[in-house]
Amino acid sequence: MGNVYIISGNDDYSRKKRARELAVQLGGEDVDDPGIEIITAESETVKLDLLAGPFVEAVETPPFLSAKKLVWLKNFPDLDLLSKSGPAEAILKILCAPVPEDVDIIVDGPGLDLRKTLAKNLKAAGVQIEMFQALQTTDRNYAESRRQTLESMVTSHGKQLEPKAVQYLLDTVGGNSANLANEVEKLLLFTGDSPYITLADCQAVTSRTPEAVGWEFTSAVTEGNASRALKLLDLLFTKDSDAIGLLSSLSNEYQRYSKLFPALKELGITHVTPRSFDNLPADVKKRFPDNPLLGYHPFRAYKMCEAAQKLGGYKIAEKLAAIRETSCAAVSGGGNVRILIEQLILKLCRS
């Protein structure tokens, strides 16, 4: 009996990548091979009868010039449609019935819900289902999952990421796996035979998104690099309304620092070292699931705690008060907004 594979989930990049890999595994690289038949939904508005008819015919037609063939229903617009009456019923009937021994089937597309009857019926019929869900910021292990995904992309090519480079990419590229893969590919080409990818490599090559510039800006301020912060301000500040986002990002960073003191106390750490977060007991995450330090890369956690302890709680409170005063002045029209932010940067970097 042939095999049926369904690849679904809302992570478009990972889903399509996996479907392509599976198609190569089952049918070979050459899409013109007589053993591969692809029926593609070119858009989300394609009529299902234009997919159902060719798909059923392809599955029911014996292989020609090959012992076995692959039928790939590619980019199906919404797999939940298979539970509806109409042309999709013919597709579902094929998927749930015993497939001829000389045929394998792949169907990929979004919309399958493993909790619903459709998925349960497909599983009961022996269909092999793979799901690729995009990470959400509300996911409990969001930060750790993204870090593991990024590092696996790099280590699979025999390279390693400098800890600062890991955090830079996670903070600036976001959770979109397609964007992440694109930036990693550029870095692999840029670094050539070097076994390491550094923060400098990332800053030189990765797309200069607003998130990336914003990350560099807040880092420059918290590190006391006024010259760097003012230069980056030129890229970020184009109109007065930009001030709200800039001030918010600075406030969030110092508030994050302030939360590290109780987080350290909860973990029983009084003095941080580069190895403080590398070898924590296995049950720590279970005991303290909401501890913010456990969501960061170990090196990132160390550097943030080092900076926070260097400043101290009193200084952090002072800086937050300065940001709040500038925010009030910017909103109330108490002066030139650009000058207000420049003055704040100088004050934060000096103190």
Describe this structure as you would to a colleague.
The chain has 351 residues and is an alpha/beta fold. Helix content is 55%, strand content 9%. It is built from 16 helices and seven strands. The strands form two sheets. A five-stranded parallel sheet has the order 2-3-4-1-5, with helices on both faces. Helix 6 packs parallel to helix 8 (199-205) and helix 10 packs antiparallel against helix 16 (337-350).
Strand content: 5-15%
Rg over alpha carbons: 26 Å
**Helix count, DSSP H or I runs of 4 or more residues:** 16
Helicity range: 40-55%
Gap from first CA to last CA: 73 Å
The helix/strand order is EHEHEHEHEHEHHEHHHHHHHHH
Q: Low-confidence runs (pLDDT<50, min 5 residues)?
A: none
The largest beta-sheet arranges its strands as: 2-3-4-1-5
> What overall form do the CA principal axes indicate?
elongated
Instruction: Give the assembly state of these chains.
Output: single chain
**Mean of residue pLDDT values:** 85
Work out the number of β strands.
Answer: 7
Q: What structural class do helix, strand and pairing data support?
A: alpha/beta
* Main sheet overview: 5 strands, parallel
